[in-house]
Amino acid sequence: MAMTHEQALEVLAADRGQRVVVTTMASIGLWPRISDTPRDFAYMPSSMGQGPALGLGLALAHPEPGVIVVNGDGCTLMNLGFLVTMANTPANLFVLIIDNGLYEVTGGQVTAGAGHTDFAGLARSAGIRRVYHFDSLEAWKQGAAEALAGTGPAVIWLKVEGKLGQQTPKPPRGMQEQIGRLQTSLAGSS
C-alpha cells in the first residue's frame, strides 16, 4: 500500500523520541496537526535545500536529543552536497527524504530525475553508512523504530504519493517564537 505524506509523518511522530524535528516545505503544513511541541521547528527559508544544514548545526550543538530533518525530494536535489558534509561530520542527525516526485508547493512541477533518482544510492555514495528506503506504509511502520534507533548520521528515504494543487504552507508561528521555544526546550542539553 502506497503511503501519503501525512501517513509517513504520523509514523515519524510515533517513533521520534525526544529528538528535534525540523520540517521544510510541504511538511510544514502537515506536521503541526500531528505534533506541535517546542522541539518542532518549521523551517521556511528563502532558499530550498538548506534544512539539513540547520539540522546539522543543531545536532552538533545538541548531540542529545538529536535532530530529524524532514526534507522533500526537491529540496534534497537542490543541495545534494549536504550528503557529503553529513557523512564527514559525525552528528546525531537523521534526514528523512519525502519523495513524491514533485515540487509540490511551488506548482506541482515534476522533479528532475523523478521516478529514477536513487536517494539511498546517493547517500551511500556520499559515505553515509545508515541508509534506509521504505516505499510502503506497512514497510515504514515495521522499519521506523530500527531506522530511528541509536544515533545518526542516517538517511531515510520515503516514497509517498504526490498531491497536486498544494499551496506554500505558513509556519505555525513566527520565527522568533519558534527559536525561543526551541532554545528553552534544549536548555541544559549538550
Helix content: 40-55%
Residue fraction in strands? 15-25%
Tell me the number of helical segments per DSSP (H or I, 4 or more residues long): 8
Gap from first CA to last CA:
40 Å
Order of secondary-structure elements: HEHEHEHHEEEHEHEH
CATH superfamily: Thiamin diphosphate (ThDP)-binding fold, Pyr/PP domains
By CATH, the architecture is named 3-Layer(aba) Sandwich
How many domain regions?
1
Q: What structural category arises from helix and sheet content?
A: alpha/beta
Number of strands: 8
Q: Label the overall shape.
A: globular
Stretches where pLDDT falls below 50 for ≥5 residues? none
Q: Mind telling me the C-alpha Rg?
A: 15 Å
Strand order of the largest sheet: 2-1-3-4-8-7
Which topology does CATH recognise?
Answer: Rossmann fold
Biggest beta-sheet profile: 6 strands, parallel
Q: Average pLDDT, to the nearest integer? A: 87
In the CATH hierarchy, what is the class? Alpha Beta
